[in-house]
Each structure stands twice: as structure tokens, then as C-alpha cells.
């Protein structure tokens, strides 16, 4: 049975490599970077925690800006931007004036902000 969240999955025999499955598997309306991150057990929990933070932020009418801190890798910064943008938020990286490294991502609500048709937590793993 094909998942309603996935499309374009060609038929593969059991000898098909993992890469072939990833190429044919795409969540409709979800950034390919996020789908790949969710397929990776090492990153899935982190992405889902980011999503939960964003969902709480969007539901809080008193808060217009949310700051993600302690993002030690460029991969996590990229994931933060992509998850926030999936929810229609505007994002920007803030540089630390002291050491010059960008370790924070700020997300701001826009008129388009809100829950997407497909939440990342609804996307199944392979």
C-alpha cells in the first residue's frame, strides 16, 4: 500500500540499493533535504524536536520571534532554516559579534506562517 505522503516511488526489486529508494521517494510538498534528514536515524529526532518547537511557537499568539541556539554544525543550521521555512516562517542567521560565528537562527512569523498540509512527524521512515 502506497503512503499518501509519498509519490513517485518506482517499483524496485529487493536488490535495489538504498540510494535508488531515496531517489524515487519524495514526500509531496516537503523539501527533499528534510525528507532525507527524516530518513536518517541520526537526524530524525533532532528535526522532529525542531518541528515541535516551531509548532509551539506558531500556536503562541504573543510570540512573534523564536531563536534557535546552540547549532554546532552547518548541517543543523541548514535543517533549522528548512524546518522553519516549511512552516512559512522567515529565517535568518545571527552572527556572534565576539567570535564571528553564526550559532543562532531566528525565525519570525509572517502572514503565511502556519501548519503545513503535511507535518514532518507524519512522514514515515523507510
TrEMBL record:
Gene3D superfamilies: R3H-like domain. Residues 44-111 form the R3H domain. Residues 1-24 are annotated as: Disordered. The keyword Phosphoprotein applies. It comes from the Eukaryota. The keyword Phosphoprotein applies. Residues 15-24 have a biased composition (Basic and acidic residues). SUPFAM superfamilies: R3H domain. GO terms for molecular function: nucleic acid binding. Coiled coil: none annotated. CDD domains: R3H_encore_like (cd02642). Keywords: Phosphoprotein. This is cAMP-regulated phosphoprotein 21-like isoform X2. It comes from Iris pallida.
Amino acid at each position: 500500500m502506497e503512503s499518501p505522503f509519498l509519490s513517485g516511488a518506482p517499483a524496485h526489486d529487493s536488490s535495489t540499493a538504498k540510494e535508488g529508494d531515496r531517489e524515487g521517494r519524495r514526500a509531496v510538498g516537503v523539501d527533499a533535504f528534510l525528507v532525507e534528514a527524516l530518513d536518517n536515524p541520526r537526524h530524525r529526532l533532532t528535526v522532529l524536536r525542531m518541528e515541535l518547537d516551531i509548532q509551539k511557537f506558531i500556536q503562541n499568539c504573543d510570540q512573534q520571534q523564536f531563536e534557535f541556539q546552540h547549532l554546532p554544525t552547518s548541517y543543523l543550521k541548514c535543517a533549522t532554516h528548512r524546518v522553519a521555512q516549511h512552516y512559512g516562517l522567515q529565517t535568518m542567521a545571527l552572527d556572534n559579534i565576539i567570535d564571528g560565528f553564526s550559532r543562532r537562527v531566528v525565525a519570525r512569523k509572517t502572514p503565511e506562517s502556519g501548519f503545513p498540509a503535511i507535518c514532518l512527524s507524519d512522514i514515515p521512515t523507510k
